[in-house]
Amino acid sequence: MMDTRHILESKKKQIETSLNGLFEEVMTAMGRSVKCLVKLDEGVCQSLMRLEATLNEKRRLLEQDCLVAIASQQPVASDLRDIVADMRIAYELARMGDYASDIAASIMEMDGTRIEPLGLLDIQIMAGHCEQMAHNVMRAHQTADVELARRVISSDDELDVHLRKMIIALMDAMRADPANVHNGSRMLWIAHNLERYGDRTTNIAEQVIFRVEG
């Protein structure tokens, strides 16, 4: 019994290490994608677009480790919650990585004209808010901090407010000048991806609460 417990604890630590690495990669990718809006770096954008497949493979391997732990070690209820939550969090992180890749793709489609009048500052504010949400939910996960997880969930409302404000401003800019439509539509997609990124962090926060409170 003690050997089985030791093996399970070792496997859970391995899973947590992989999950923390996935957190860091996804957060870094989102930060790099938004920075490309200010200074277009085609090489960085292309590497971010390729990252999607890499993150999906890491998610698959992490989920495989979780399934092996469940099948071979017969975890008790609390261990099972931990492992199931980690599987779900890995899925959410992979999708968050997809949004960073999608943002890079939208940037590559822009025509090179100025985007400052098209809500660049709003995008940067949204990105900063997303970064804080992701940082907080990672810390909530690592420390089993349910109250911090709940604060992450409630902070998603602020992101929605920024999105609605930006949509209104962008639609006005595109109506005023048809030349703004091409880049403006890309900025709308970028804002949408940031909003979805925030939604995924709230999903992770819900898994933290599930993990602790069952």
Our count of domains comes out at 1
Shape: elongated
CATH architecture: Up-down Bundle
Question: CATH superfamily, please?
Answer: Phosphate transport system protein phou homolog 2, domain 2
Poorly predicted runs of 5 or more residues: none
Q: What's the overall average pLDDT, rounded?
A: 91
Q: What's the CATH C level?
A: Mainly Alpha
Strand content: under 5%
Task: Outline the biggest β-sheet.
Answer: none
Helix % is over 70%
What distance separates the N and C termini? 25 Å
From the helix content, strand content and strand pairing, which structural class follows?
mainly alpha
If you had to describe this structure to a student in words, what would you say it looks like?
This protein has 214 residues and is mainly alpha-helical. It has a single domain, classed as Methane Monooxygenase Hydroxylase, Chain G, domain 1 (Up-down Bundle), CATH 1.20.58.220. It has six helices and no strands. It is elongated and about 70 Å long. The relative contact order is 0.14.
